[in-house]
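A.,

Following up on our hallway conversation. Structure tokens first:
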């Protein structure tokens, strides 16, 4: 394959991206399933022309299918959700026009990078030649002529380049692929393509377009690290695993199960790690941290050794560093990223989760925890599970107090959980439902729980659900979305209609922010500004009647099938009808009203959100007193972990 081929920069980009493959464990798949986009003058004649030419050509198998989205932020969410469902082995490309089209992708970029999920962003840039500037939508920075709005992608991207000349394209593309397929580096990858450069022709070496395979590695642990970690685990009396998203991305669920079954060590799960062990497994203690189960949180509190696997120890996972209270608690952290492996001053085992777990199980050589410790796990779990049952099926004193046509959120989650198939996927991101799902949802399959809680971005839900369904068309996808999140980004329902993609959206109407309302109340701010109401003429405050917003009609107007339910039986029937709806029939929306004042069972935990230190309000002063008490339990976790494999834990 020698010689050159004359193509525009955009045609070269499309041709190159269509022949990139990822490989892991000997299996290969196309790295890019397609390209989402919204055209404007920045990309319509450049990438737009190249994608059209690609769609019309009938002589090549390597196409990059194009899908028109409704909002640039949303299309990045869809791509990222797809990548998560595919264990980061496949993703999408996103093209946007100059200016607002491109900056709309910034939130998506942050979400991708924070969740360590691959996505290739191609924002358009204003003219590289600058001959006719300032053009429509161009930022003029008086202090630096080369600054554009796209520089805002730099802090949000794991790789950034701007192709001002065609000659720069090959290295930009190769650099982008390297980062996208690296489990440590991956996240948003941004290549800015100025609008004139997109249309420029160049003689490219033919080799640039040869198919390429990018192996996604499984870095092996160092033998010395495994020996030390195993010694610490053997010496621990109350070891406890915190399983994070890395367990899923590595496909380490079976290895984790083998490790737990061999040792009897219990597991608490972060949001990204939920489902690492299936519900009902004797060592599965469910969610840990601020939105955890009382079982996992009791064990975390007492643990003398915490084994973090594929977790980045966010504040929700560590209950803002109050979750681990044993004075001598130490950490062993298995993580593919040295950055995360070093957290909480732990012993770092830098490795792929599956490989490290397998090595640890072997090194522990039949070591088991005390039988009394196993019994304690079982007892704590029974106690918690009874609370879940009561949240799923609230007693008459709770249901009897509800207004007509209104359910508890626990009832809604319980009905969806029990009437969905084990392999169906639940999708959520912001509001009160992520916490409730973390506590209450019974996960029965490794890819069945998808709550985006790295960025917890309102509006991710519907586009995210779309991405999951595109990635996994054999599973039904239940998108749980609050009214607040729905109002922020309902428009990808239109994309689902256009592509005839079935997602089941459970739209939970509670007239405002249940989550932030409760938080506000707890912090002494009296639910200020958290419910959707008219401004009251007499007081001038947002405390009038509820707004007459008809969310069901809104969803219907986008072309979705909408079912409105008013009681538990109607909800059950709606879930069954939605499941029975045709796979190519587009989105089904179930509209249900819930009471925002009925809460999920308590986690016996905390989350650090600072309260005003001085205040004219009694509610705030009392909240500040409570805050200082919790704050006192916060721990720095800086003690060095013993490095002598023969030595005692402390
Ligand atoms: C884009 C974005 N803006 C603001 C927030 C802060 N926030 C978190 S939850 C929430 C309210 C969510 O309301 P809704 O979707 O109705 O869920 P509910 O709290 O009622 O369960 C807000 C404003 C956020 N997470 N994302
Ligand atoms: Mg709400």
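Then the amino acids I'd put at each of the 650 positions:
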């Amino acid at each position: 394959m020698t010689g050159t081929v004359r193509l525009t920069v955009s045609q070269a980009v499309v041709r190159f991206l269509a022949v990139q493959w990822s490989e892991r464990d000997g299996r290969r798949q196309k790295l890019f399933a397609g390209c989402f986009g919204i055209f404007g003058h920045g990309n319509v004649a450049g990438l737009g022309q190249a994608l059209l030419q690609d769609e019309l050509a009938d002589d090549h198998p390597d196409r990059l299918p194009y899908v028109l989205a409704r909002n640039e932020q949303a299309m990045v969410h869809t791509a990222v959700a797809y990548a998560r469902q595919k264990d980061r082995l496949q993703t999408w490309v996103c093209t946007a026009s100059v200016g607002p089209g491109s900056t709309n992708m910034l939130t998506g970029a942050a979400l991708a990078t924070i969740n360590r999920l691959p996505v290739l962003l191609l924002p358009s840039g204003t003219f590289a030649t600058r001959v006719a500037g300032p053009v429509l939508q161009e930022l003029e920075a008086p202090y630096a002529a080369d600054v554009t709005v796209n520089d805002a992608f730099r802090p949000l991207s794991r790789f950034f380049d701007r192709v001002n000349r065609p000659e720069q394209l090959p290295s930009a593309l190769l650099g982008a692929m390297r980062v996208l397929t690296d489990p440590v580096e991956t996240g948003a990858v941004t290549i800015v393509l100025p609008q004139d450069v997109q249309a420029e022709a160049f003689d490219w070496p033919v080799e640039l377009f040869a198919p390429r395979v990018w192996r996604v590695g499984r870095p092996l642990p160092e033998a010395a690290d495994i020996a030390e970690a195993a010694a610490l685990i053997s010496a621990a009396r109350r070891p406890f695993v915190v399983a994070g998203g890395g367990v899923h991305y590595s496909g380490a669920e079976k290895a984790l199960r083998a490790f737990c079954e061999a040792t009897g060590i219990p597991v608490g799960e972060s949001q990204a790690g939920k489902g690492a062990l299936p519900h009902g497994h004797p060592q599965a203690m469910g969610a840990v941290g601020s939105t955890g189960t009382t079982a996992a949180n009791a064990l975390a509190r007492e643990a003398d050794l915490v084994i973090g696997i594929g977790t980045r120890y966010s504040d929700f996972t560590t209950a803002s560093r109050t979750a681990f209270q044993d004075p001598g608690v130490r950490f062993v952290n298995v993580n593919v990223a040295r950055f995360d492996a070093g957290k909480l001053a732990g012993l770092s085992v830098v490795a792929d989760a599956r490989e490290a777990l397998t090595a640890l199980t072997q090194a522990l050589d039949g070591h088991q925890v005390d039988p009394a410790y196993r019994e304690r796990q079982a007892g704590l779990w029974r106690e918690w599970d009874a609370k879940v049952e009561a949240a799923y099926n609230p007693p008459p004193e709770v249901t009897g107090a509800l207004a007509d046509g209104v359910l508890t959120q626990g009832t809604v989650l319980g009905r969806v959980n029990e009437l969905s198939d084990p392999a169906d996927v639940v999708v959520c991101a912001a509001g009160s439902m992520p916490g409730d799902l973390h506590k209450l949802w019974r996960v029965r399959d490794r890819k069945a729980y998808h709550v985006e809680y790295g960025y917890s971005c309102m509006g991710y839900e519907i586009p995210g659900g779309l991405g999951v369904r595109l990635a996994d068309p054999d599973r039904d996808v239940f998108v749980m979305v609050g009214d607040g999140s729905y109002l922020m980004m309902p428009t990808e329902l239109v994309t689902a209609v256009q592509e005839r993609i079935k997602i089941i959206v459970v739209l939970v109407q509670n007239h405002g922010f249940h989550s932030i309302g409760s938080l506000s109340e707890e912090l002494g701010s009296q639910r200020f500004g958290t419910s959707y109401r008219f401004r009251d003429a007499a007081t001038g405050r947002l405390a009038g009647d509820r707004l007459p917003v008809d969310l069901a009609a809104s969803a219907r107007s986008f072309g979705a099938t909408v079912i409105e339910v008013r009681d538990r039986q109607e909800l059950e029937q709606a879930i069954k009808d939605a499941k029975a709806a045709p796979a190519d029939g587009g989105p089904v929306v179930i509209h249900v009203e819930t009471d925002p004042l009925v809460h999920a069972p308590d986690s016996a935990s905390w989350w650090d959100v600072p309260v005003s230190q001085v205040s004219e309000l009694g509610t705030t002063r009392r909240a500040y007193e409570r805050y200082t008490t919790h704050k006192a339990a916060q721990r720095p976790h800086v003690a060095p972990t013993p490095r002598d494999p023969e030595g005692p834990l402390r």
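The pocket of thiamine diphosphate (ligand 1) is lined by residues 430-433, 456-459, 482-485, 510, 513-516, 596 (CB under 6 Å). Curious whether your intuition agrees with the design.

B.
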